[in-house]
């Protein structure tokens, strides 16, 4: 019997962040979603690259500049190959680049829908505590307490009470529960003597 179950949760956002601004076609502020497509234009030795978005309301296209008038020689070869082949992982990384999006618009919708893949990395179900290591490849919109509540089968108020009682310890302190989970963040939960210990351990891993 080990005293701690170690698990790794990989938290993947289902939806890309959507910038909001006035759509010239259907009017009013509208969210725009990435179409999954890129455009790459060559003009002599210079290149332009855009990520293509579409208005949620009317499908009007918005080309988000990735770079403009960049010397082809200044673009890393790996990036250029990814741009040319519209590599899905590369497109996804661009779509989740929140700081680049924030330079275009202050309003960005982030969905709280995530998929969580759980992997046991140590210990067993006889443990009296659980340590959760988070892998968050791209920013997600939901709060950490919501994620923990949903994935451990507990209410959000119970999560808060566990933190208050000193049983739940989160990297970044108590306020981190109200913020989105971060890549590399660790959560430790002491289940010693708790009636639903088994259910929580089963849900964790
Ligand atoms: Zn529109």
Automatic annotation (TrEMBL):
Alphabetized Pfam families for the sequence: DUF1062
Highest taxon above the source species: Bacteria
InterPro entries documented for this protein: DUF1062
Designated name of the protein: DUF1062 domain-containing protein
Species this chain originates from: Pleomorphomonas carboxyditropha
